[in-house]
Each structure stands twice: as structure tokens, then as C-alpha cells.
Amino acid sequence: MSDKQYTAALDLLRRLDPDQTRANVANLISLEPELAEDLLAAVDTPLTVQKDPHASHREFLCCDYNRDIDSYRSPWSNEYVPELTEEDAQESPFPSDPLRQLEVLCNDSFDVYRDLYYEGGISSVYLWDLEDSTDGDFAGVVLFKKTNVGGEWDSIHVVEVTAADESRAVYNYKVTTTVILQLRSEKQNGLALSGNLTRQLERDAPVAHAAGDSIDAVHVSHVANLGQLVEDVESQTRNLLDTVYFEKTKDVLQQVRLANAHTAETQLNKKQHQDVIRGLQNL
Amino acid sequence: MSDFERIIKDVIMGCPPGEVEEVYKDLINIVGENSKDTIIDAIEEYNIAHHLPVEVNGKQVILSEYNKQGSKFNEPFDKISFEVDHLTRQGFNIETIELPEVDEEIQNIHKNLGIYAEANFPGDVSFAVYKTSDEDKYAIYIVSTKYNPSNFWNGYWESAYIYDKQVQTLEGGIRVRVHYYEDGNVSFKAEKEVKLEDATDVVASLSAAEKAYESELDGLFDDLNEKQFKSLRRRLPITRSKVSWGKAIGNYRLGKDAAEGR
């Protein structure tokens, strides 16, 4: 696979029907099998759901970030579902112990957030240690999914958290957010408003660091900082979705077909108006 | 059709109007110049299926199965035939051909259709009335597009009907596409079947049907917003304020449990 092919494939996926992203990705992989790994990692598709048999069958969200082979790690029990063979499981990625503690706290807090904003739906947070970086840095993904009749919302927030200075009193938080929103009319077959929008946000924020501060205090700071960041970027994205899906679409529609039926009178006015413009252009 | 041809056709058919040249370039970058003919064949099929206009002698001529003759297309008013570069949608090898005069009835519909189209479609609008193989039936098209790639959006409206002058029925449909692709990929698709009887004045009938659809679309949009979008994620929590993060976040749950009497 060349860079040219990969760039072209990403451009295509930005143009082709976003309602069919999975099928489009599969088609591109058939055309060039070497695109598979990179495309599957880079392209966001609607999240899938699994039930965790080790946590009262509670549902959790699945994406490439918590996948190993064909199994997905649950945030509730930290186990892969379906269970991996002992041999495979030894190689599987798990967060380090302190990071898993932070992951549990994140899942608890974002579950409250989910309830407040989504009043339903599913949330899952996955964290992983960053290789070759300072102790205490980490990355992760915060996921939300909600469906209703004809509608489906998937939020994917990929975050990276790195110490902004040596004292580790301030951390840098970076998030790349994609929301996939699909809306289908219940009243008319074939009417669909669907797609995805991406935004990024980055900020520095203080973290508890005094000698006496426990690891718990550091974790509480991280969750609060991440929580505010995700809440802000998700609210911004929701507003953008509102504008683009509804206002922008209607606006473009009116550029191809006038919204209001034209009476003979307004047609005449339009003609007079055009005549005036033509007259001015000829000056 | 080979699997390869089927996939190419699938990709081209999923292309938003106004972006076929970019999609063509992307495909060439992926599969190579050798597959050029396969891609162009799919684009021809796409252009005809969407009744897209091509430029011939400075005029826009709508492509349809009814003005296709072999590898060429014709324009019955100017009595010309031409080949098409389907990628750039330009006519070439333009020749005058022997064609009978256009029926008076077609001329009338064409004239009224033109007045209606100019008044109601502010985009780049084209229209056509073609004879079909059944002499009682005419094919009627209006295609309005507005392409604005520098602002990352493209829009398309197509009306395509078959008018049966014997029984005065109008059958066909409206297809609408809007694509917005700045920092994302958002698509609006709508299709409406139209079936009208007693279409004594065919243009008046289709005009009424299209106006009715326009208001219907408005209502459908509002529904998507009110009933689906708004209930997926709230703008703010029911408390009307942002979340208090940190240790106290557990209080929400305590509060909720208390409210629900747990």
C-alpha cells in the first residue's frame, strides 16, 4: 500500500455515503487488501455493543481500542469477551494497575455524565499506558452510544494526557472527538440525515501534586479535567451537528429549489430585479 | 459483471452529485490507470441514472435512456447527436441528424416546464421532455444542482416522471441530495414517489405535487430534530447547569436514588 492509496481512500470515505461507511470500507479493502489495517484503525464506524458475563451482563461499547483478536475488553470486569484462550490472554493488552484504578474511576464518573446528558444509552472508557513517555502520561477513549426509534448517536473521544512540565503540576489534555449521528424518518422511507463531524480541543489544567497528595487525589484531578474537556467538546459538537444537519442542509436545499411557492407577483418582481441588475451590469 | 466491476459501480453509485471527478481521481490512485475504462463505464451509468446534464454547443442537455442511441445521445429540438465525455460531462463529435419535428404537445410541455423550472429552481437548472418507445408516453425531467466545493457542500434536486397523455397520468418521483463535508461527512437523502391522475395540465400538476412535497419536507425535518435529535443527547442536563466533576459527582447518583425512593 502506498501513501497515495491511503490518502485517496480517506478522501473517498469523506465523500461516499456516510450511512454506508462499513460497506464502503469493505469495498475499498476488496480493491486494495493492504489498506485493511490502516483503514480499520483510522475510520470511525458506529460502535457495537457486547454484554459482560462477569458483570451481570451489563452492556459495554466496542471499538478498535479495546479489541484484541476478535474479543473486546469490558470496562466493568477488565475481562475480554468472548473469553480468550489462556495463551492469547497472556499477550493481550491491559492497563497497568494504577491506570486501571483511574479507568474504573473514569467509568464511574462518565456513567453519571451519560445519565445526565443522554438519559439512557451506554458509556465506556478505556485507558492505555503510553510507551516511551513520562510516568503518569496516558491515553484513552471515552465512548457514548444512544439509540432511539430511527436515530443513533455514537460519540468517540480519543484523549491524550501528558505532563506539561517536570513538576507534573499541570497536564496537557488533548481530545479528538467524532460524533456519528444517523437519523431516519419514521414517516417517509428513504429519508435520512446521517454522517459524522470531527472536532479537536486541547487545554492545560492543574493536577493535585503536593507531596502529601495521594494517587487518589491525582486521579480525581484527571477525571475532573477530562470530564470538563469532554463535556465542553461534546456540547460544541452537538451545537455544530444541530447547525450543519438542520440549518445548513435546509440552506443548501433552498439553493437548488426555492422554499416558497412563487406567486405570479413575486416572479414579476424577480424579473424586474434581474432587469435592474442587468441594466447595472451593462453600464 | 466481475466482482471488481461490481465494487467500482457500487463506489461510483454512492458518490454525491458534483464530486464524481474527485471520486474518479481517488479510485485511479487506488486501482491504477488500467481500470480507467471500468470506472468511466460506471460513471456513464451514474450520469444517466441521475439524469445529469452535459454541455453541448453551450447548452445543457439532460442524459436519459430515452435520448441514448447506441453510444451517442441526441437532442430532439436542435436535431443533433453527440458523444459524451462522461467525466467532464462535455458533448463532442456533435452532428446534425435527421429527426422528425418535435410534436406540438411536447413543445407546449417543454415551454411551460421551462417557465416553471426557471421560477422555482435557483440552482443550475436543466429540464427536458423526451419521447419514449411508447408513443403515448413522454419522459419529463427537471434537474437542479448547486455545487460549492470551496465551501464543502453540494446540492441536487431531480424530478423524473413519465406522462401518459392517453390516460393523463403522471408517474415518477423526486430525489434530493445534500452533501456537506467540512470536518466531516454529512449527507441528506430523500426520495418521494409521485403518482398523479387527471393531469390535464401536466406542468401545473407536477408543480402542485412538488410544492406539496416541499412543505412535507419541512415537517419531516422538524420531526427529525424534535423527536429524534433532541432526545438523543440533551443540550444541558435537566439541572440546566454543567456537571460538577470531581469527588462530588457521586452526589448526582445519591440524589437520583433518593428521588426514586431507593
Written account of the structure:
The complex is a heterodimer of chains A (283) and B (262). With 283 residues, chain A is α+β, with helices and mostly antiparallel strands. Chain A has 7 helices and 10 strands. Chain A has a 5-stranded antiparallel β-sheet with strand order 6-7-8-9-10. A 3-stranded antiparallel β-sheet of chain A has the order 3-4-5, with no helix packed on it. Chain A has a two-stranded antiparallel ribbon with strand order 1-2. In chain A, α5 crosses α6. The longest helix of chain A is centred in the C-terminal third of the chain and has 42 residues. About 2% of the residues of chain A have low confidence. Chain B has 2 domains: 94 residues, Ribosomal protein S3 C-terminal domain; 127 residues, Aspartate Aminotransferase, domain 1, CATH 3.90.1150. A 5-stranded antiparallel β-sheet of chain B has the order 7-8-9-10-11, with helices on one face. Chain B has a 4-stranded antiparallel β-sheet with strand order 3-4-5-6, with no helix packed on it. A two-stranded antiparallel sheet of chain B has the order 1-2. In chain B, α1 packs across α3 and α2 packs antiparallel against α3. The model of chain B has no long low-confidence stretch (mean pLDDT 94). At the A-B interface, α1, α2, α5, β7 and β8 of A face α1, α2, β8, β9 and β10 of B.
Outline of this structure?
With 283 residues, chain A is of the alpha+beta class.
